[in-house]
Structures are given as C-alpha cells and as structure tokens.
Amino acid sequence: MNDFRLGVKLVGGFLVTALIIVFVGLFSIRQQSLLGDEVEMLGSESIPAVENILIIKSQAASIASLMRSLLTPYATKEERNYSHSHLLKTREIYHEAKEKFMALQNSKEITDEWQNFNTNITKWVQVNDEAVTLSKELITMDLLNPTVMKQHMSEFELTHNTLLAHLGKLILLGENFEGGTDAQTCSLGRWMENLDTNNPKILRLVSQLKPIHTKLHQAVKHAKELANSDRKFEARGIYESEVYPTSQQVFALVHEMTALVDEAEAKFVRMNKLLLEDGEQYQLKTFAAIDQIVEKVKQAAQATVQNAHDSAHNGQVITRSVWLSALFLRSL
After folding, report:
1. Which tens digits make up the pLDDT trace of 175-211?
2. CA-to-CA distance for 38 and 36, rounded, in angstroms?
3. How far is Cα 149 from Cα 143, in angstroms, rounded to an integer?
4. H helices of the chain, where?
5. What is this structure's pTM?
6. Is 60:287 a contact under the CB 8 Å cutoff?
7. Which of 86, 186, 270, 316 is the most core-located residue (most Cβ within 10 A)?
8. Alpha-carbon span 172 to 161, nearest angstrom
C-alpha cells in the first residue's frame, strides 16, 4: 500500500513537473516571439524613423544656412553659385530621407504633423526658389552689390555738381579751388579705369561716357585758366557753351547706369524681403513641425523599447514563479 502511494506520488510529481516544463516552454516561446517582434520593430521602424527625420532636420538647417548666405551684398559670384548648387545637393539628401520615412509604418501614425510639415516646407521651397532665381539674375547682370554701386553713382553725380559749383564761384566771385582738371583723378574717372562689373549695358555706357567725361574736365581746365587770367567773361562763355552742356551729357549717362543699378537693387531687396519675411515664416513653421514629428517618433521608439523591456521582465517573473512553485511541490 505504501509502495502504491509512493508510486502515485512519484507519477503525480512527474506529471506536474512535465506540465510545468511544457508551460514554461510555451510561455518562453511566446515571450521570445513578443520580444523578437519588438526588436524587429526597433530595427525596421523606430530607429530608421528617428534617423531619417533627423536627417531631414539636419538638411533643413543646411538649407537655412545656404539661404542666409544670399542675404549679404558682399557675397561673391563664386559664393552665390556655391549656395545655389549645394541647395540642390542638400535637397536631394532631404528628399531621399523623406521618401524613406514615408515608406515606414510610423509615418502613417503622424498624419497631422506630417501634413503640417509638408505644407510649410513646400511654401518654403517656393520662396527659396524665387530667391535663388533673383540671386542668379544678379550674377547675370554682374551687379552683385547694387547698394555699393548705387553709392558710386551718387558720388559721381555729387562730385561733378560740386565741381560745377566751384567753377561758378571762381568765375563769379574769384574763389579759386584745387583740382577738377584731370579726368583720370576724379572718382568717376578712377572707377571707369577699374570697373567692378562686366555688365554689358554698363560697359557700353562707359565707352560712351569716357570721351565726354574727358571733354568735360578739359573744358573745366580751360575755363579755370581763363578765369585765373582775369578773363572771366571768356571763362563764363566756356562754362555756358562747353562745361555745362557736357556735364549734362555726363549726368544723363550716369543716370542710365543708375537705372540699371536700381533694377539690380530692386531684385536684391526683393530677394532679401522674401528670405527675411516669407522664408523666415515658413522656415520656423517647418522646423516646428519637424520637432513635433521628432517627438512623436521618439515616443514611438520609447514605447517599443518599453514593450520589449516589459516582455523580457514578464518572462523572467513568470519563469521564476513557476520554478519556485515546482520546487515547492517537490518538497511536499
């Protein structure tokens, strides 16, 4: 009888142990499957999502920097061309990352933020494209710094108006003055000898202006000599018949150049207005949308990591509990 009970007990203990092993095995397989799913999710969705959205943000920052480089009137032709070409390269990297992100399941769960991002970056791209077009037009005109060029034109007109005033005082009041007799030493003459532009229209105007400008200073020299020789009446005649009409021709050609510079300046002002107003607005909204997406992606990645941690932890807890139960039963 005792042997029978012992046998039952042994068989019962064996069956319990077997059931425990089966349970633990099945449970372990289940937990490993869950853990594997979470790890796969991390590798195929969460990590790529974070990587690609951060690439988008990095390239957007590069685009913002390239656009800022167009704002300065002191950017050279080479610097502007660099910004134009690298804008395209940066967009290629950004578009590739964008396509990869959109192919992920995570992107389907961020619809509002993604739509906000797409809306604003599309508008930002349009503004940047228009600004680049204007920048390229400045290069074509070879008037990269219209502000300085306009200052030149104003200086040329002021200098020659001052010369006319000094000559008039010399003839009428006998007030002598220095200079004004050499076309090569005045600001306009020096500029024409060392042009800082290859704009074809300005080059044509300069070729017309040079002989007229030389004639003007020669007439001033003649009038000064007559006035200083006490032949003021003759000097006045030279002023009225040569100096004044020739100066008006000089001013007319300078005004034509100024009109070209004004055209370039309008492009430059328009470009700056686009980038500093509309561009800045869409840029800020784009980055705000990216930050929202980054936060959502990070939250999804953290949730996946937490799920993986929970699966591993639950497996450990259940396994330990079952084994402790088995040990307890065997001790009975």
Report:
1. 999 999 999 999 999 999 999 899 999 999 999 999 9
2. 5
3. 8
4. 2-41, 47-68, 77-102, 111-141, 146-173, 187-193, 200-228, 232-238, 244-273, 280-331
5. 0.76
6. yes
7. 186
8. 16
